[in-house]
Amino acid sequence: MSADSHHHEQSFWQKYVFSVDHKVIALQYLFTGLFMGAIGGFLVYAFRMQLAFPGSEIPFYGLVNSASYNSLVTNHGTIMIFWFAMPVLIAAFGNFLIPLMIGCDDMVFPRLNRTSYQVFLLSVVVLIASFFVPQGAFGGAWTAYPPLSTTPTYSLTPWGAILWITAVTLELIAFLLGGINFITTLMNSRAKGMKMMDIPIVLWFIVIASVLFMASVGPLVAGAIMMIFDQTLHVGFFDPARGGDPILWQHLFWFFGHPEVYVVLLPAMGIVADVMCVFARKKLFAYKTVLYTAIATGVLSFFVWAHHQFVAGIDPRMANVFTVTTLLISIPVAEALFVYIATLYGGSITFSTPMLFALAFLVEFLIGGVTGIFLGASGADIFLHDTYFVIAHFHYTFVPIAIIATFAGIYYWFPKMFGRMYNEKLGKIHFWGTVLPFNTIFIPLFYLGMAGQHRRIFDFSNFPGLASDGYQTLRIIATVSLVIMILFQIPFVINLFYSIFYGPKAERNPWNANTLEWVAPSPPPHGNFEELPECYRGPYEYSVEGRELDYWPQNEKPV
Amino acid sequence: MGLTQPIATTRSAAGMDTGKLALWWIIGSEIVIFGGLLMCYIMHRIFHGHWAAEAAHTNVVCGALNTFVLLTSSLFIVLAHQAAEQKNRIKTFTYIWLTIGGGLTFLAIKSYEWTIEIMHGYTMGKSLFWSFYYTAAGLHGLHVIGGLAVMAWISFDVLKGKYFNRVELIGLYWHFVDIVWIFLFPLLYIAK
Q1: Is B135 in CB contact (< 8 Å) with chain A?
Q2: Cβ contacts of B6 on chain A, cutoff 8 Å
């Protein structure tokens, strides 16, 4: 019996706002995340314009002064990580895909799921409210190091700081609730016959990411409580004058912050794996290796956090240990990338929009990974620390994750999410307009970083060594590229909203894919499947010899 | 509200009841939250020998009494679980409320203790030891209050003959809250 057999009319509010259906909650997360991403994009536009054309009036924003510059930078970072990457990559894709791909009707705890989104929405409201309090939104950098974050006379944003840490804490709680649901659902609710090694890689990775999140976020939750007390009750947890220790916050923050990198990386790599197999018509090369490298990466990610603190006054002997662990973690990640390339080898590749994004992920993330080696080595890091080299490296990992792989996923599952096809031509325009300018934004920043450009300067004309024409030209190239990249998101928005309503109707399985979500109607009704599927084989049986079709759905009964 | 349980909730591919599985994950995430806080405290404590003088002002008698009260309430929730297995509504209800009584006694003793301490000037801002003392015990106290609320809710379901399995779940959670206190008591009160 499927859940929709006792279907009854629901009001708009029940269906779209207070829904317990995992697909509706996924779309709520998706659109909230995209909305926040647009805000994050607007913030970076404002402060990049200031860097390229210091002191000039910025269209749609106005003048950026030093205080608002700090708020812009801080909230750009915070929003892109906590309110764009996390909700879209983990919550939206996790909620949408987990029940569909394991062949069941919903999450195990639908109401917990709804609560998770509501707490998340509350955190969005608190964060947006922080822009409208006296002295404006928090300006102590997204890492919120004390004393900048705990002493209002330093950050100049007494209200913004409190609202910021409150919003972050709420967001973390929302994802803890969601994560429990994800892990339990994948463990317990798989379709009959779906063994551990029959689970699509994207689900494995989302759930490993949820476990990593759960295991790493605790100390930061404790740290956030301590920080709120420092800010509001004037306790001295992080204040050396009162016996506290500011480095403690850095440890708590990065103990979470580094695994967090892999919390967002893994879902992205999972999406890329699934998209690649479908559009290369190839079985995923070395499924188990991919899985075990992800687990190895996850375990190692708990032992690398202090590489963010090489210049914070930690013991140099400890820095050596963290250099070694940091360089070690590049081994499983590189292995996964090689395995992905091996998957492409000999495939019959279709360059559709999702596939282009997936391939771009591999290329761009590789640059991000390789430049990380320089920063992971404590000696080189002392020179490069807090320069634009760090910014460029970080964005070369994070943009492929949160933007490129996210778009691969959105285009790939678009027919399932909305029941209609997107426009391929607009998709390709969007692809080239996103990926090419992305490189011309950040390659100049690598050079500027190596030239010693510090990351927290609001107007370089005050620094004669950095204000030369050559450097300023590089800054202008980066900023112009950013504006181009933002403008090329317009085709995506048009494509999204036009295709949701007027795109050609999608069939159940437009890509001839194997996994179970393509068994359900597009879009799946409440309850997902007419008849809950059973699973007979792994997810990547493409181009199997001796079969007429080049794909072999997981639910197809063996003859 | 007429919400039907999804089929997903009734499956158990991992061979474990869904509720229990989720509860273990909740406890796991709570362990890292308390673990992070207590590690911070322990590291500070190791490097600040003089905190022992501050810790001498804690009320060990109250702390010991509270340990006894919480452990006794844990016994009651075990008895409630046993009665729930036999589907004995009245007995389960009674034992749950005895557990709640234990939790309330714990909170009452705690309130008394904190009132005296605050009146003598040992407030949260006095020194870092007291900051940790109130933060750790306060966070634990919130978990006690939360547990009591859920327990009361479950007790009335049980009285109607529904959801007997949830008694075991809240029991597991209550044991966890208990164990956190077992860590807090020596760390905050006894260590001199």
Answers
A1: yes
A2: 3, 104-108, 110
The b-or-e profile of A412-439 (16+ CB within 10 A means b, else e) is: bbbbbbbbbbbbeebbebbbebbbebbb
Interface of B with A in 34-93 (CB under 8 A): 34-37, 39-40, 43-44, 48
Label residue A487 exposed, middle or buried (CB < 10 Å: 0-12, 13-18, 19+).
exposed
Asked if residue A267 has a cis previous peptide bond (ω within 30° of 0), the answer is no
Q: Please tell me the pTM assigned to this model.
A: 0.94
Whole-angstrom CA distances from B54 to A31, A238, A454, B50 are 52, 19, 44, 7
Q: Is the Cα torsion angle A245, A247, A253, A259 positive or negative in sign?
A: negative
- Residue B1 in contact with partner chain A when CB distance is under 8 A: no
Angle at A437 between CA A433 and CA A441, to 5 degrees: 160
CA closest to B47 among chain A residues: A243
Closest approach of chain A CAs to the CA of B35, in angstroms? 7
Yes or no, beta carbons of A180 and B26 under 8 Å apart: yes
Predicted-complex ipTM score: 0.91
Contact A222 B36 (CB under 8 A): yes
Q: How far is A259 from A263, CA to CA, in rounded Å?
A: 6
Asked if residues A245 and B44 have their Cβ atoms less than 8 Å apart, the reply is yes
CA nearest to A69, candidates A158, A154, A138: A138
Which residues of chain A does B12 touch, with a Cβ-Cβ cutoff of 8 Å? 188
d(CA A445, CA A395): 10
Q: Do A190 and B25 touch (CB under 8 A)?
A: no
**How many helices (DSSP H) and strands (DSSP E) are in chain B?**
7, 0
Residues in chain B with CB shorter than 8 Å from the CB of A177 are: none
Nearest to A308 by CA among A238, A243, A237, A393: A393
Interchain contact, B13 vs A189, CB within 8 Å: yes
Please report residues of B whose CB lies closer than 8 A to that of A185.
8
Q: What is the DSSP string of A49-79?
A: HHHHSTTSPBTTTB---HHHHHHHHHHHHHI
Alpha-carbon gap, residue B63 to A431, rounded angstroms:
63
Q: Where are the alpha helices (DSSP H) in A488-538?
A: 489-502
Q: What is the pLDDT along chain A (559 residues), one digit of tens a residue?
A: 344 444 556 777 777 788 899 999 999 999 999 999 999 999 999 999 999 999 999 999 999 999 999 999 999 999 999 999 999 999 999 999 999 999 999 999 999 999 999 999 999 999 999 999 999 999 999 999 999 999 888 888 999 999 999 999 999 999 999 999 999 999 999 999 999 999 999 999 999 999 999 999 999 999 999 999 999 998 989 998 888 899 999 999 999 999 999 999 999 999 999 999 999 999 999 999 999 999 999 999 999 999 999 999 888 899 999 999 999 999 999 999 999 999 999 999 999 999 999 999 999 999 999 999 999 999 999 999 999 999 999 999 999 999 999 999 999 999 999 999 999 999 999 999 999 999 999 999 999 999 999 999 999 988 888 888 899 999 999 999 999 999 999 999 999 999 999 999 999 999 999 999 999 999 999 889 999 999 999 999 999 998 999 999 999 998 7
SS3 A242: helix
Is B18 within 8 Å of chain A by CB? Answer: yes
